[in-house]
Design brief:
The structure holds three protein chains of three kinds.
Chain A: H1 17-51, H2 69-76, H3 78-111, H4 117-125, H5 132-143, E1 147-148, E2 151-152, H6 157-181, H7 185-193, H8 198-209, H9 211-227, H10 230-235, H11 243-253, H12 257-287
Antiparallel strand pairs in A: 1-2
Helix pairs in contact in A: 2-12, 3-6, 3-9, 3-11, 6-9, 7-8, 9-12, 11-12
Chain B: H1 2-10, H2 18-51, H3 69-76, H4 78-111, H5 114-129, H6 132-142, H7 148-155, H8 169-193, H9 198-205, H10 210-239, H11 242-247, H12 255-265, H13 269-300
Helix pairs in contact in B: 2-13, 3-4, 4-8, 4-10, 5-8, 6-8, 8-10, 9-10, 10-13, 12-13
Chain C: E1 5-16, E2 19-30, E3 34-38, H1 45-53, E4 60-65, E5 68-69, E6 80-83, H2 95-105, H3 110-123, H4 139-151, E7 157-161, H5 169-186, E8 190-194, H6 197-203, E9 206-211, E10 214-219, H7 221-226, H8 231-236, E11 241-248, E12 251-253, E13 262-263, E14 271-277, E15 283-284, E16 291-302, E17 307-313, E18 316-322, E19 333-338, E20 343-346
Parallel strand pairs in C: 3-8, 3-9, 6-7, 7-8
Antiparallel strand pairs in C: 1-2, 1-4, 4-5, 9-10, 11-12, 11-14, 13-16, 14-20, 15-19, 16-17, 16-19, 17-18
Classes of the chains: A mainly alpha, B mainly alpha, C alpha+beta.
Main location (chain A): membrane
Protein name (chain A): ABC transporter permease
GO cellular component, one term (chain A): plasma membrane
Chain lengths: ~290, ~300, ~350
């Protein structure tokens, strides 16, 4: 700061007209940006929500008549309900696979030192940064013709779960590694000291103290899998199609308000699970 | 003390049976994660690497071969050359837009009183929690001639004829930025949260105008965050192909779109594999650059 | 002999990198004994405790608990229980669950757990706090829960890792008395780590003074205070004045070689010496005592019970604790005397 005023000159404080003008201008800019960002994020959400109650079968504004017709249509269609079921099953499977494997790996990183630690870290984290199209294609090519006991792996929900875990597991791992670092290692030692074996200590002491982190990362895993459709597009067949895949394929042919309903249902599933976790979290807070 | 060492010698030597289990334990714990990463990422990448040298003859998926044709095609084939250029351009512009909007958003949340914070964070979470396909569809209903935008502008009297922004590069940018915004926002918010707000008062106290304060105080403090947020957005934007291909013009072919097209449309596995390998290598290079930049930053900070 | 030892450490050694934290430490703790490891930070006392608890492995030496060798066993298979500096209570478990934890881990029958937990909480005067969570308790209460949690499993030896250092002074004194009372009543065996000599003196059967990983002296508190085995022990325990002198054919000089008026009952050989006397044993205006020094009064501090008079003789600075006022003003030359038994000399 060589160009500041000489020490004896009184500093220009924020009382000059120029400064006041600046402050007003800033406030207006801030307000304008706030409106812009709210509108930007809200537009697709609001448009979808509004359109899902449209009675007409074409996407067209303004909406003339309102009804629940497309909701009825959605839940009456076996194809769409099956896709929703498939999505939820795959998302639950991904959550279990990636939470268990991610939590265990993060605990290994927190608790032990072992050779090649940074290489292992890279191996676990790398898939998170890979485009879905590359992961989906790779898994599809490598496992396209593989069958176990005469049973084709390709097209099964299990394969999609594992593919989705390529994104969900590193995310759980990353979040849990940070969470485990906050665990007071002295309570772990205290448990060993009182005769708690490593496995007992892990389940009785470590896991409960990171339960919030585990639940949050499990939620992320669930949401990622539920919403993902590029990998699923490469890996599912007509029988195992997920809701986002079906939406993508329908959008390519023709858009109807049924798609809006599907969007609302999908987002609804996410927000319901979020709300359940909020309730759990508040109850947990009350405990202590 | 000689008596003590004699009894020590009589004791059974301290066995080291805990040694093996202690060395194996971390690998046992990591085995599920490593299995997933190696079997479903490492293996497929190797498989694709091999596949990319196969030939594609007579509408069969692939014919075992060893040819550089698929890579050579990328340099000679104008479609693919254009796709690389399109992908890079889209990702670059949308990342810049994302960083600017995300930076302003994060700064706004940082500056506003605490009671607004939860609402803003919830707002920022929305694009993250909503499926990309729903986002695409939302904008798909906003931009066309019969969409909300056109209707709003006509009914407010700003324009007289219906307009459509659908299937333009602008629509693609808007969608892409929307998808990458939350990542960028949360990275930058965490950087801002690490800054003591008193630096602003200190700077104003020393007589600096707001813009000057921003330029001389905030920007240098958040430089690292901006780089990280930009890189993150860029990687994400490169890999996201559904949004630009659905909202942009038909000619807006990104690498991701070409991969899907080769795989599902043309059933040309070797070509799709080669494209994927190039995309993977590109992402890895960007990641390595980030790592280098971030390690240099920590070195500078001591 | 061996069957009355709760804990034996036999030439224990542990190095971290190049630094030897525990160097050839041997201690034999009899049943019911309360042994304190006292030393400045970095002297290896906490490392020794962690070796006993099983949180670190020794490089050499043996640890025996009740006569059986344990240094190859992990922490959870050793019959020890540690009271940590911060308590290390399990934050998600209630007080009762915390205390019951060790019993459950040791497979104590469910029916026996509840009465033992109640009894342990009674002993530390926390009956009625069973359903509280640690976050709802004060620092002193938490530390008493930690005490109950460790005592309830009746370990062969209790390990205290500076349990009072995080508390404020009055609470520290109160809990110190409580631990002492419990030891007198129950007679548990314990190793207690502290850097506070007051704690060490007040509670211990024996004190081991540690320095750079070694035990300098291990003995009853009175012995350690009254007959320190080394210069380090002397200076670490209690206050002392150091007179650095050069002796040359019976004449004394300060470190710079300026002559000082020092008379000693027993002459010292020529060379550099460090003479130590406790400030409470120095007496003012006592030219009649065997040893004496003429020094100038520098300034006075009022410490409550006593006045502390600071003197200078050449480069030598010393202070004398004296009850009541003296007739001297700063600048006066004063005779300070002491008995031969109260002085130690090192060269």
């Amino acid at each position: 700061m060589a160009d500041t005023a000489p020490p004896m000159e009184p500093p220009k404080l924020a009382h000059t007209p120029r400064a006041r003008l600046d402050a007003t201008l800033l406030r207006i800019l801030g307000l304008a940006f706030t409106v812009f960002i709210i509108a930007y994020i809200a537009i697709p959400v609001v448009v979808t929500l509004v359109m899902s109650f449209n009675e007409a079968s074409v996407i067209r504004f303004p909406i003339k008549a309102w009804s629940f017709a497309w909701y009825q249509d959605f839940f009456a269609s076996p194809q769409w309900v099956d896709a929703l079921k498939s999505s939820v099953i795959i998302a639950l499977g991904t959550t279990v696979i990636s939470t268990v494997s991610g939590v265990l790996a993060a605990w290994a990183f927190e608790r032990f030192t072992f050779p090649l630690k940074s290489v292992v870290y890279l191996v676990i984290m790398l898939p998170l940064f890979m485009p879905g199209v590359v992961l989906g294609l790779g898994v599809a090519m490598a496992f396209g013709n593989v069958s176990i006991f005469g049973y084709d792996i390709y097209g099964t929900r299990g394969l999609v779960m594992l593919a989705h875990s390529l994104w969900a597991m590193p995310l759980v791992f990353m979040l849990m590694e940070a969470t485990f670092r906050t665990v007071d290692h002295r309570i772990v030692e205290a448990s060993y000291d009182l005769g708690g074996r490593p496995v007992q200590t892990f389940f009785e002491i470590v896991l409960p103290s990171v339960s919030t982190g585990i639940i949050s990362s499990a939620l992320f895993a669930f949401v990622i899998s539920l919403n993902e459709f590029v990998m699923a597009l490469f890996l599912t067949t007509r029988d195992t199609q997920t809701l986002p895949v079906l939406m993508w394929l329908s959008l390519r042919s023709a858009g109807t308000p049924r798609l809006a309903v599907a969007s609302v249902v999908l987002a609804g599933a996410v927000f319901v699970s979020l709300a359940l976790i909020m309730v759990w979290y508040v109850r947990q807070l009350k405990k202590t | 003390m000689s008596g003590a060492s004699e009894t020590a010698a009589l004791d059974s030597p301290a066995p080291r049976r805990t040694f093996w289990s202690a060395a194996l334990m971390p690998w046992l714990l990591m085995s599920p994660a490593l299995l997933i990463a190696i079997a479903f990422f490492g293996l497929p990448i190797l498989f694709m690497g091999r596949m990319s040298f196969n030939a594609h003859i007579d509408q069969r998926f692939y014919v075992p071969d060893f040819t550089w044709d698929n890579y050579a095609a990328m340099l000679t084939d104008p479609t693919f050359r254009n796709a690389i250029w399109t992908t890079a351009r889209l990702a670059l512009i949308s990342s810049i837009a994302t960083v600017i909007i995300g930076y302003a958003f994060a700064m706004l949340v940082w500056l506003k009183p605490k009671r607004w914070r939860l609402a803003f964070v919830a707002l920022a979470l929305c694009p993250l929690l909503i499926s990309e396909i729903s986002i695409i569809f939302g904008w798909w209903m906003f931009f066309p001639k019969n969409g909300l935008l056109s209707y709003a502008l006509v009914s407010s009297g700003l324009i007289t004829d219906k307009i459509s922004l659908m299937y333009t590069e602008f629509a693609a940018f808007v969608g892409l930025t929307y998808v990458t915004l939350p990542f960028c926002f949360f990275i930058l918010l965490s950087i801002f949260d690490g800054i003591d707000k008193k630096v602003l008062e200190a700077s104003a106290d020393l007589g600096a105008a707001p813009l000057r304060t921003f330029h001389e105080v905030l920007l240098p403090l958040t430089k690292g965050g901006i780089a990280a947020a930009f890189a993150q957005s860029f990687i994400w934007a490169v890999g996201t192909y559904a949004t630009p291909s659905a909202l942009g013009p038909d000619t807006l072919w990104t690498i991701g779109y070409l991969i899907q097209e080769q795989m599902l449309g043309k059933h040309n596995w070797p070509r799709a594999a080669a494209f994927s390998i190039v995309l993977t290598v590109g992402v890895a290079i960007v990641m390595m650059i980030i790592r280098m930049l971030s390690s240099k930053r920590t070195a500078l900070n001591g | 002999m061996a069957d009355t030892s709760a804990l034996e450490l036999d030439r224990l050694r542990r190095a971290f990198g190049g630094v030897v934290a525990v160097d050839d430490v041997s201690i034999d703790v009899k049943r019911g004994e309360f042994v304190t490891l006292l030393g400045p930070s970095g002297s290896g006392k906490t490392s020794t405790l962690r070796l006993i608890g099983g949180f670190e492995k020794p490089d050499a030496g043996a640890i025996r608990i009740n006569g059986g060798r344990v240094d190859h066993l992990p922490a959870y298979q050793r019959d020890t229980a540690t009271i940590f500096q911060t308590g290390a209570l399990f934050p998600h478990k209630t007080v009762a669950e915390n205390v019951a934890y060790g019993l459950r881990m040791r497979g104590v029958a469910r029916a026996d757990i509840a009465p033992r937990v109640r009894q342990a909480l009674d002993i530390v005067r926390l009956a009625g706090f069973e359903e509280r969570y640690p976050a709802q308790m004060s620092g002193g209460q938490k530390q008493r829960v930690a005490l109950a949690r460790s005592m309830v499993v009746r370990p062969a030896i209790l390990l205290f890792d500076e349990p009072l250092s995080a508390l404020d002074l009055s609470l520290r004194l109160q809990l110190r008395a409580e631990i002492k009372r419990l030891h007198d009543e129950i007679g548990f065996s314990a190793i207690y780590v502290t850097h506070d000599q007051g704690e060490a003196m007040a509670m211990s059967s024996r004190v081991a003074v540690m320095r750079s990983g070694r035990i300098e002296q291990i003995d009853r508190p009175e012995k350690v205070f009254g007959e320190p085995a080394s210069e380090f022990v002397y200076t670490f325990i209690g206050e002392s004045c150091c007179l650095k002198t050069q002796m040359a054919s019976g004449a004394a000089a300060d470190a710079d070689g300026a002559t000082i008026d020092l008379r000693l009952a027993n002459g010292l050989a020529d060379g550099d010496w460090r003479l130590y006397v406790r400030p409470s044993r120095l007496q003012i205006d006592r030219a009649d005592l065997d040893n004496r020094l003429k020094a100038r009064l520098d300034f006075t501090e009022f410490l409550g019970d006593v006045h502390r008079y600071h003197f200078k003789a050449g480069r030598i600075e010393l202070f004398v604790d004296h009850q009541g006022a003296i007739a001297h003003r700063p600048g006066d030359l004063v005779d300070i005397g002491w008995r031969s038994a109260d002085m130690v000399a090192y060269r």
